[in-house]
Design goal:
Layout: H1 7-16, E1 29-30, H2 33-42, E2 50-54, H3 60-65, E3 71-75, H4 82-88, E4 95-98, H5 107-114, E5 126-131, H6 137-146, E6 151-159, H7 160-166, H8 177-185, E7 186-194, E8 199-200, E9 207-214, H9 225-237, H10 243-248, H11 258-267, H12 281-295
Parallel strand pairs: 2-3, 2-5, 3-4, 5-6
Antiparallel strand pairs: 1-8, 6-9, 7-9
Helix pairs in contact: 6-8, 9-12, 11-12
C-alpha cells in the first residue's frame, strides 16, 4: 500500500487514474500522518469497534483506521475514486467501500447488512470518524443526529468556523440552529485546530477536529421534537427580528395569530422582545411546551 507522506505521492496516485478534483464536492484530502494519528487517538477506538467513515477520499485516514478497529465502512459519493481506493486499500480486508449518498443512507441498516458475519448485537452502537466534505457538513450533521442513528460518538474534521458554531453559547455571534441541534443530541468539544497545509489540495480555510459524544437523553424535555426544531429554525431564520416577530411571521403554525404567539412566549416566562439567538435550550423547550398546549 502506498505511503501518503507528501502531496507528490498522492499526486502520482491520482494522476495514474486521471482523477480531477470536483470543487462542488469539497474534496480536500488529508496527508499528514501526525494529524491522522491525533484524530484516531481522539476517537477512543478499540479493536472491537465498527467505524463509519464519510468521504474517505483517497483512503489516507481509512487505511490507518483499519489497523485500529474491527471494521471500517467507508461511504463515498464520488464513484471516480473507486479505482484509487481499491489500489490504496489493497490488501486490507476489513474495509467495506460503499458508493452512495451519505445524506440518504440508513446507517443502522447499513451496519446490520455489512456486519452480519461479526455477530453484532442489534442494539450495539458504532462510531463515526471522518474528515467530512466541507460542502455537506451542516446537512450531514443535522441528518445523522435528527435520524437518531446509533452512533455513540462522532470524531470529525470540520471547518474551523463550523467548530465554533457547534459549541457556541446563546447571545454569541456563532450561536444558531446547528448549535442547538448538536447540543441537544450531543456533548460537543473542539479538540484541536488543523492548518491548511496538511491537505491536498490546500483549502482556503483552517479546519478543526471535534468530538461529539451522544447523550443518553436530551438535556431538556420537549413534547415533540419536530415542533421544537421548527421553533428553533424559525427563531434563527431572521436573526435581527424579535422572537415574537420571527415566530408570528414565520407561518410555523398557520392558525396561530400574533396575539396567540405573544401569549405563548409570555406564558413561558420570556420577553417577546428578545431575539431568538439569546434563548438557551431550556427557553426554547419552554416555548415548545406552551405551544404544544395551545395546539392541543
Amino acid at each position: 500500500m502506498p505511503e501518503f507522506n507528501s502531496s507528490q505521492n498522492l499526486k502520482e496516485i491520482l494522476s495514474k487514474f486521471n482523477f480531477q478534483f470536483h470543487k462542488g464536492l469539497g474534496q480536500n484530502f488529508l496527508l499528514d500522518g501526525n494529524i491522522i494519528r491525533k484524530i484516531i487517538n481522539s476517537a477512543n477506538l478499540s479493536d472491537d469497534d465498527v467505524v463509519i467513515e464519510i468521504g474517505p477520499g483517497a483512503g489516507t485516514l481509512t487505511s490507518v483506521l483499519a489497523k485500529c478497529v474491527r471494521r471500517v465502512i467507508a461511504v463515498e459519493l464520488d464513484l471516480r475514486l473507486s479505482p484509487v481506493l481499491k489500489e490504496t486499500l489493497a490488501g486490507i480486508d476489513n474495509v467495506d467501500l460503499v458508493f452512495e449518498d451519505a445524506l440518504k443512507l440508513d446507517y443502522d441498516k447499513l451496519i446490520d447488512f455489512k456486519c452480519k458475519d461479526l455477530t453484532i448485537n442489534s442494539q450495539r452502537t458504532y462510531k463515526l470518524v471522518s474528515n467530512l466534505p466541507y460542502s455537506i457538513t451542516t446537512p450531514i450533521l443535522t441528518y445523522l443526529l435528527r435520524k437518531k442513528f446509533k452512533f455513540s460518538s462522532l470524531t470529525l474534521m470540520v471547518q474551523r468556523e463550523v467548530s465554533s458554531r457547534l459549541i457556541a453559547v446563546p447571545g454569541s455571534r456563532d450561536y444558531g440552529n446547528l448549535s442547538v441541534i448538536v447540543q441537544y443530541y450531543t456533548v460537543p468539544e473542539v479538540l484541536f485546530i488543523v492548518p491548511r497545509a496538511v491537505f491536498y489540495p490546500r483549502p482556503e480555510v483552517e479546519s478543526a477536529v471535534v468530538f461529539l459524544v451522544k447523550r443518553q437523553a436530551p438535556p431538556v424535555k420537549v413534547p415533540e421534537e419536530d415542533l421544537f426544531f421548527g421553533l428553533v429554525r424559525g427563531a434563527f431564520g431572521q436573526r435581527r427580528k424579535t422572537i415574537l416577530n420571527a415566530l408570528s411571521g414565520g407561518n410555523l403554525i398557520p392558525r396561530f395569530n400574533r396575539q396567540q404567539w405573544q401569549e405563548i412566549i409570555q406564558s413561558a416566562g420570556i420577553d417577546p422582545c428578545r431575539r431568538g439567538e439569546t434563548l438557551n435550550l431550556k427557553e426554547f423547550s419552554d416555548i415548545c411546551c406552551r405551544c404544544w398546549e395551545y395546539k392541543h
